[in-house]
Amino acid sequence: MTMQIEILDTVTDPAQPGGENEDAIGWNARSAFVVDGATSLGAPVMRPPGSDAAWLAEHAAAELQRTLVDGVSTEDAVRTVNRRAAEAFIGGREEIERYRYPTASFLSLRVSGDALELAGLGDCVAFLRDAGGEMIRWSALAIRRSREQYFAKIAMARAGGFDKDGATIR
To answer: Which site among 5, 85, 106, 152 is 20 to 30 Å from 11 CA-CA?
Structure first.
C-alpha cells in the first residue's frame, strides 16, 4: 500500500486580529507544507491589498503543491519555487533593491517510500505524534542551532570570554 497524506483539518491565523495573514499552507497526496512570509524592508512592490510577504507565501504554496511530487527532490522543488517566485516578483519591473524582496520560511512533510521526510528553512515547527502517542517537535532551525552554538563556543574561547557588560573581550 502506498502511503498518502490525509489532511483532517487546517487552521491559519494572522498575527493580529483583522491583520493580513502572511502565512500559507498547502498539500497534495504525498506532501504537506507551510510557508511563513516575512515582510521586506521598504515600500511594497506588489499591488495592494496583499503585502509582498503574503504574495510570496501564497505563490510559494501554490508552486510547492505543483512541484513537491514524486520524482522531484525537495531541494529541486524548492529551487524551482524560488526561481519562479523571483521571476514573477521581478517581472518586467525595473531594478528592485534586494532589501525590498520578501522572504519566507517553510517546512514540508512528505511521504518518501515507507518513511516521512521533513525539510525546512527558518523557524517553522512541525509537531508530530507517532503511533505510540509520543509527540515529536521538529524544526530546521534546531538542527542548525547546535552547529551555531558549537562555533560560538570556539569563537568565545578565542576571544577570551565576555567582559562585565556582556561583550566579547576582543
So the answer is: 85
